[in-house]
Structures are given as C-alpha cells and as structure tokens.
Write a structure and sequence with these properties.
Blueprint (H helix, E strand, L loop, with lengths): L1 E3 L12 E6 L2 E6 L1 E3 L1 H14 L6 E5 L3 E4 L1 H16 L3 E5 L3 H10 L1 H4 L1 E3 L2 H38 L1
Parallel strand pairs: 3-5, 4-6, 5-7, 7-8
Antiparallel strand pairs: 1-2, 2-3
Helix pairs in contact: 1-2
Amino acid sequence: SLAWSSDSEEGSVPLPIHRSDRQGISILRPEGSLNEGTSTELQDAVGEVTESDGAMVVIDLSDTNAASSHAFRVLLRVSKRLKSSGGRLVVCGARGAVQSALELSGLARLCCVRRTTDEALAELMVEERIVRLARLVGDLLRRAEERHLKSVGAA
C-alpha cells in the first residue's frame, strides 16, 4: 500500500492517499478530511491510476473522517469521467458523519456505493465479466454476419 499526496497549497495539510491494486482494480483510500483543498488531490490521484480507458477504481472512505459537498461533487465528476471512457467508480467504506453526508448529498443515488471494499471489488468484477461477455457476443455476431455475407456472395 503506497501513500500518495500531491504538493499542496501553502499552509494546507496534504492528504495521504493509500493506493493498492487488486485484480486489476485500483483502490484509493484517502486518510483524513476531504474538503475543497484536499478533494482535488484525490481527483489527481484518480487521474494517475486511470490513464487508460476502462479503468476500474474503488474509493475507500473508511479512513476519511469528514467530507464536504465539494468532495462529493469531485467524486461525481470522477465517476462520470470514468463511465464516459468505459470505466467505473465505486465508493465504499463510508461511516458515521461521512456516511450521513454521502446520503444527504445524493451521491449515493448517482454513483455506486457499497459498504466494504470486498463488496466494491465484487461489484466491479461482475461488471468486468459483463463487459467481456458483451465484447465476445459482439465479435461472434460480426463473424456470423461475415460468414453469411460470404455465403450470399458465393451463391
């Protein structure tokens, strides 16, 4: 698990963000308070792990003790950006005041939220299997169409 923090504005405390990977899924666990200053650090950290299309990311809030509405807007933007590139974001581990703020913000209705990291990983693994299956079906349909066109052209 690697701690990540960017250069922060003078006078503000950098946000430690622990990063790990499990089965090709990036897990980011910010530690401390997510506010206007620190949530951009989380957004930058997500940017670093999602350089390729189809990136799967879990944001584990289990070590986050406070979160502002600005932080939730950042998470929503990240979620939308990942979806547009074929990826997915799952937020998990929120407890206490962070869980309450998450529900009040409406993010829980707009973004996938799970209780634990294991539940978040399971969600993304199922999604990845569905995506692979859809690609396989698409490939099979294209091959069948090509064979049909060849047989029609030969007749």
